[in-house]
């Protein structure tokens, strides 16, 4: 589903074993969020950040309306470049919980983007995952917003 390599040193200020950085290459045709979740679970990444670029054939974004607390999903089924993917990893129900946003460019160079639900890799997907191994970041349902917010 993916290949990865651990970056040997992030900076001289960080404790190498507690804070880990990985270069991750997702396999072609996998579903991005599923593969990233599998990576985080396999490598026990429960607190971290993710960034990346890649090429995909389909993406589904989710828009949340805070007024109605309803989700509206929209799928774009076309070849696109992930011009930027940014997200974080926390822990919910003892599993890695991903919160990822992405901007994707289309054939005409216009962009679509938002909160990423799923994407199908078609070409390559190259990610950098930073784990903050000694930090706990959970998730808790928040009545006011209707979202699972950070619980520290
Ligand atoms: Fe979001």
Can you give me a brief rundown of this structure?
The chain has a single domain, classed as 60s Ribosomal Protein L30, Chain: A (2-Layer Sandwich). It is 7% helix and 62% strand.
> How many individual β-strands?
9
Average pLDDT, to the nearest integer?
93
The end-to-end distance, rounded to whole angstroms, is 31 Å
Share of residues in helices: under 10%
Order of helices and strands: EEHEEEEEEE
- What is the name of the CATH superfamily? Hypothetical protein, similar to alpha- acetolactate decarboxylase, domain 2
Tell me, briefly, the overall form.
flat
Largest sheet: 7 strands, antiparallel
- CATH class category: Alpha Beta
Q: In the CATH classification, which architecture applies?
A: 2-Layer Sandwich
**CATH fold descriptor:** 60s Ribosomal Protein L30, Chain: A
Integer count of domains: 1
- Low-pLDDT parts are none
Helix/strand/pairing category: mainly beta
Which ligands are bound? fe (iii) ion
SS field, number of helical segments: 1
Structure notes:
Helix content is 7%, strand content 62%. Strand 6 (95-105) and strand 7 form a beta hairpin. It has a single domain (2-7, 17-151), classed as 60s Ribosomal Protein L30, Chain: A. The strands form two sheets. Strands 1, 2, 3, 4, 5, 6 and 7 form a seven-stranded antiparallel beta sheet that branches. It has 152 residues and is mainly beta. The structure holds fe (iii) ion. Fe (iii) ion (FE) binds at residues 99, 101, 115.
């Amino acid at each position: 589903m993916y290949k990865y390599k651990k970056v040997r040193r992030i900076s001289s200020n960080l404790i190498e074993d507690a804070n880990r950085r990985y270069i991750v290459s997702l396999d072609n045709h996998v579903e991005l969020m599923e593969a990233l979740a599998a990576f985080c679970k396999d490598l026990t990444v429960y607190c971290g950040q993710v960034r990346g670029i890649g090429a995909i054939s389909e993406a589904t974004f989710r828009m949340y309306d805070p007024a109605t607390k309803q989700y509206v999903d929209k799928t774009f089924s076309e070849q696109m470049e992930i011009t930027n993917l940014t997200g974080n990893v926390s822990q919910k129900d003892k599993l890695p919980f991903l919160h990822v946003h992405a901007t994707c460019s289309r054939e005409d160079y216009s962009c679509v983007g938002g909160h990423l639900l799923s994407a199908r890799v078609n070409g390559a997907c190259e990610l950098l995952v930073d784990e903050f191994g000694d930090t706990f970041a959970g998730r808790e349902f928040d009545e006011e917003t209707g979202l699972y917010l950070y619980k520290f």
